[in-house]
Amino acid sequence: MNIISDFELQEYIKEDLPYFDLTTYLQDCKGKKAKLKVFTREDITVSSTEEAARIVKLLSCEVLFFVPSKSRLKKDETLIEFEGDYNSVHQAYKLVQVLLEYSCKIATTTNKMVTLIKEINPFCELLTTRKSFPFAKKFCINSILNGGAMPHRLGLSETILFFKQHREIYTSNKEFYQKINSFKKMAPEKKVVVESSCFEDIKALMEYGVDVIQIDKGSLELIKEVVSHKNRYCYENIKLLAAGGINISNVQEFVQTGVDGIVTSSLYNCGMADLGTKLTISK
Fold first, then answer.
1. Whose CB has fewer CB within 10 Å in the chain, the N or C terminal residue?
2. Is 1 a residue whose pLDDT tops 70?
3. What's the pTM?
4. DSSP secondary structure string for all residues of the chain
């Protein structure tokens, strides 16, 4: 799991609390204590409660209870409960709620999609693209990991993936194909992944020993044809990924083609979990 540092959490706090809370300052509630509970109004997969608890502590409140990430909660169950000075509880209130609303929704949707995939093929993996929220990669990756998916690419330095834009430099497809073996020699610990949506190109990529083929925006018929060709010619070591426009509503159709992985960006666009809060004044 990615470690989100206290410094990063402090920066998140500073965005919402650059100086002080003007509203509670006007109330002049010195000496008042409060308790806040965050609960869910729907069934969810829990995510980022550990970070929420650390935010609470950074704002000088005490965590009374929280449910660990990856847990499943039913409607009306509590994710986290904390108490402290009235002003401090209000400072933590929305920071914690918003963090959990986004993270739990991503984790919940991810888990639902993983479940749909495993119903068809337990060996097919759900992989997320690097199209996460700008400035929030760690948060997004943690959320999908808590939901049971894996990152497709963590960044340009981690994996080799040739898009069609990378191939413009070559005078022909043949010239590119002949470079594949040298790429593999230069980076012996890495897989060479190439994106394509043309059957003839995909067949040639298989012949020249590419490790992974990402079929982008390919029709179900094309993907089935590619899987059949791979099996017919016993390219056992080549992995096939389906990408482009795949979401929770159509994922099972793509899994049924026999690919090894589903690549999606949809998990970062699923909205927010329906979470509620209850604040009480401590006696």
1. C
2. no
3. 0.94
4. -----HHHHHHHHHHH-SS--HHHHHHT-TT-EEEEEEEESS-EE--SHHHHHHHHHHTT-EEEEEPPTT-EE-TT-EEEEEEEEHHHHHHHHHHHHHHHHHHHHHHHHHHHHHHHHHHH-TT-EEEE-S---TT-HHHHHHHHHHHT-EES-S-TTT-EEE-GGGGGGSSSHHHHHHHHHHHHHHSTTS-EEEEE--HHHHHHHHHTT-SEEEEET--HHHHHHHHHHHHHTT-TT-EEEEESS--TTTHHHHHTTT-SEEEESGGGGS----EEEEEEE--
What is the token pair recorded at 70?
A: 């990856």
Which residue type does 155 have? Answer: G
Whether the CB-CB separation of 224 and 232 falls below 8 Å is answered with no
Average confidence (pLDDT) over 10-17:
96
The length of the chain, given as a count of residues = 283
Between CA 229 and CA 102 the distance in angstroms is 41
